[in-house]
Amino acid sequence: YEVNSKSLSLMTVAQTASDYDPYKTLGVGRGASQAEIKRAYKNLAREWHPDKNKDPKAEDTFIKISKSYEILSNEERRSNFDRYGQMDESQPFGQSQHHHGFRSFHNSFYFDESFFHFPRSRDFADSKYLLHHAHFNSDVLPDSHKRPYLIKVTSEWCFACIHIEPVWKETVKELEPLGVGIGIVDLGFERRLANQLGAHRAPSIIGLVNGRVTFFHQAVVREHLRQFVEDLLPHKLVERITDDNYLSYLDNWHVENKPSVLLFDQVPIVPLLYKLTAFAFRDYVRFGQVDQGDKHCTRLLRQFNINTYAPTMLLFKEDTEKPVDIIQARGLKKQIMDEFVSNNKFLQVPRLVNQRLFDELCPVKQFHRRRKYCVLLITGEDQAFLPGNKAFVDFASANRKEVLRFAYVYQRQQQPLCQALRHNQAVVILERRSQAGKVLYRSVSGGWNGSEEDKYRLHEQLELLQKDPTYLSSDATLPELNNEMAPIFIIQWMNAAYEYILQIYDDLLYSNWREMMPILSLIFSALFILFGTVIIQAFSEPGENKPRQPKPKEQPQTEDDASSRASNASRPPKKDFVEVTELTDITYTSNLVKLRPGHINVVLVLTNASKNALLRKYAKEVFSFSGTQTLHFSFLNADKHCYWMPSLLRSVSDAAESEGQSDDEEEPSDYAGHVLALNGHKKYFCLFRPVFTGDDPNDSSSETSEDGARPKRGSSRATSIEVHHKLDRLGLWMERLMEGTLPRLQVPAWPSLDETANRDS
């Protein structure tokens, strides 16, 4: 009875799906035009919208109306429905009419998911591979620098995803044990992550390595997916080794600062497992492969007595004639290879070439772990240091202990480290105490040249250190090590440009226009601007035939000009200092006489005795105004040009007398501390006179001097000014200068700096 009821339910669903007719739902005939279909849809949608129609069936009816319009408004879908009774263009057509009844049931039940809303349960095995945005950026993206990832983008009701599912499962079963990362992104639930990956449709297969995303564009076959993963890996991970190059390969350890691994195998092609291991440990170990079937490798096989019946891995360090570790097995597993390499990823005495290597070799002391000491040899690169370096390696090989780490640095490459330890050639025993660089250390007395006496002395001090941890009596803070292996900037730029070009080529080749639109828009915009400029210049008249416009007369400064200059004064300085130039015979003409219109030169008058004090105070007062492009700052030495200031003020007095104004005040004998704002083009200046800012802030002399008025010579306060007080009110005067409220003193002509000319005048 239960089986019959289920069959009856399925038949009812099939009958309902086959009876569904979008023409009847919209109330139009099969020959209706698109305008008639659209008009019918609008009327029915307005009538049956759930917000307006309170009928219980309104929502279902509205969904049917929307679905019917979606089918009939698309000519391809409408044609498919008319010919096959199907409602989605993504499904295969052209099946025999003999199976039409079954096809109608199959299509209606499986493919009209938006109408019938049948849930599809996800495979439980896929749940462990699901990626989320936060998990991807925190774990998967950094891990892609150690192993490649194969990611499938899928979604609910993606029936093409169902077709590739068997191949995907076989590929995962093969590649995951080799160390390839597997991930699945649900396009419906992880839209943010899909956008980050650039995946906008399902199914899609993506490769991720070193943070770079690559799309798979071939037929979904297991062999293609395997080759796709191999192509993701960098080239030359594994070097081909023969009798001709194995000596140079093994001897290159001191340049690369890495151990060397040799894989002996019968196959000429490097296994994918070996490539993945080489990619994971490429920063620590060099990898080479020897083809046992190659006739050019017979001497290698005899020298190391290799068994040709099983793959063999040899690991070499400083000694190129004897490997430090060997494994041999018919079926090398990833776990065995990883353990084999990770236990030997450092040389016996590695060179500290960057901070990351220093952190791994000499970790910071932690209270819950046993102490670890770093025995560091500071040496050189010349041939004279080679015997001592080799003796240090021999000593380290004979005194290997869990608590000791031996390393060396080149003094020329790591000068900041050597300066912090205050040694240029010595053996230093140190213990790191914090990530900030704090260490406790002690240098071995007598230096190091590799003699037996040096070895005995070092061994004795290491024994004392094991008995008494307080033996390290000196402390220091070490700087971060220089990265000796970092590629130069031009190589980094070329690599980045190469990857960028490859990405553009891949997008163009496979028409990934959604990702290419910003780049294409930028290119076409640049071309449009370029050709537009060329066309305008081609059709425009030559500049020589155009009459030159007369230069308009400069208008006097208005309130708007003053306000704009005041607003410019609020600009932050572009530099952390003020450029102050000296007015000399050479710079006088360009900085004053021929100064550009609208520009002002603020000049400080000083003497040899007051030069340093006044310049410091002057720079402090005008620093906030140094961001203004129309202001220039200079100083004039009154001891060198003692007649310039009297000549300037005398020319102002002569001009005032000719206009009927009188000025009976005497000129001061000391002009140090005076500041002039000189407008060379309009021939006027504003004058700041030194003031006293002592106990009485209401002193009249200090109030009037900011305007350029002269205090009387008989004033006791005006004549008793200390040097560091002379420019106390210069900041306020500069603000009024920028506002344009200071009085201007006109001059008929700027006096010359030449003393003879000034004296004769």
Q: Which features characterize this protein?
A:
single chain; 761 residues; six-stranded mixed sheet; 29 helices; 20 strands; membrane; transmembrane helix; J_dom_sf; DnaJ homolog subfamily C member 16; autophagy
Helix and strand arrangement:
Blueprint: H1 2-19, H2 22-26, H3 34-48, H4 58-72, H5 75-84, H6 100-111, H7 113-116, H8 133-143, E1 149-154, H9 159-175, E2 181-186, H10 191-197, E3 204-209, E4 212-215, H11 222-232, E5 238-240, H12 246-251, H13 253-256, E6 260-265, H14 272-280, E7 286-291, H15 298-303, E8 312-316, E9 325-328, H16 334-342, H17 355-361, E10 373-379, H18 386-398, E11 404-410, H19 415-421, E12 426-432, E13 438-443, H20 452-467, E14 474-477, H21 489-509, H22 513-539, H23 559-569, E15 580-582, H24 588-593, E16 600-606, H25 611-622, E17 631-637, H26 644-658, E18 675-679, E19 684-688, H27 700-704, H28 730-739, E20 745-746, H29 755-760
Parallel strand pairs: 1-2, 5-7, 6-7, 10-11, 15-17, 16-17
Antiparallel strand pairs: 1-3, 3-4, 6-8, 8-9, 10-12, 12-13, 13-14, 16-18, 18-19, 19-20
